[in-house]
Write a structure and sequence with these properties.
The complex is a heterodimer of chains A (115) and B (111).
Chain A: E1 5-7, E2 10-13, E3 19-24, E4 31-38, E5 42-50, E6 53-56, E7 65-71, E8 74-79, E9 88-95, E10 105-106, E11 110-114
Parallel strand pairs in A: 2-11
Antiparallel strand pairs in A: 1-3, 3-8, 4-5, 4-9, 5-6, 7-8, 9-10, 9-11
Chain B: E1 4-5, E2 11-14, E3 19-25, E4 30-38, E5 45-50, E6 54-58, E7 61-66, E8 71-76, E9 85-93, E10 100-101, E11 105-110
Parallel strand pairs in B: 2-11
Antiparallel strand pairs in B: 1-3, 3-8, 4-5, 4-9, 6-7, 7-8, 9-10, 9-11
The chains are: A mainly beta (115), B mainly beta (111).
Chain lengths: 115, 111
Amino acid sequence: DAGVIQSPRHEVTEMGQEVTLRCKPISGHDYLFWYRQTMMRGLELLIYFNNNVPIDDSGMPEDRFSAKMPNASFSTLKIQPSEPRDSAVYFCASSWQGATNEKLFFGSGTQLSVL
Amino acid sequence: QKEVEQNSGPLSVPEGAIASLNCTYSDRGSQSFFWYRQYSGKSPELIMSIYSNGDKEDGRFTAQLNKASQYVSLLIRDSQPSDSATYLCAVASGGSYIPTFGRGTSLIVHP
């Protein structure tokens, strides 16, 4: 298996522009998570899906952020309009929440820089 | 608000020594505890999980859990320079399986 695949690896954009981050989870995994990591706040959960349905989006910082999971193999995180304070590494992770398997598999992350 | 606290470090130890990393959590309902390792510029990867009070050993790694004190630790024996990384503690409440992460402790193992 190729693991969790994220794109792009790096994104540099200007304030006010729309940014779309993409994620392909591991096949068969039924949970998908979007995390944001910064030096100041560490790894923060933004939103997670179970069987393609958003379960908890309380970590989404504001209405500029939105996430979708149209099918089991694809998810997007969109920021519109982007702001410099959105600069961070965004990780997608997936897991299979069986009785004994709670391991999160992380993608390589997207380094976002908003100028 | 569920909180997971770690000393940010850096924790510096000589090669061959024991590195001790500590974590406290606020939610008494927590039932699942994890240690992730994150190399600089890379993504976190799970190295240990523990669910019951006591010690769990896996090679050079030992996880220790004390639910009464709301404390979990990771011991790395015979530390190697390749162990230099940030170690993230993660805690999940019973039934949710959704972990909350601490900010991580930076470990430096010097030759």
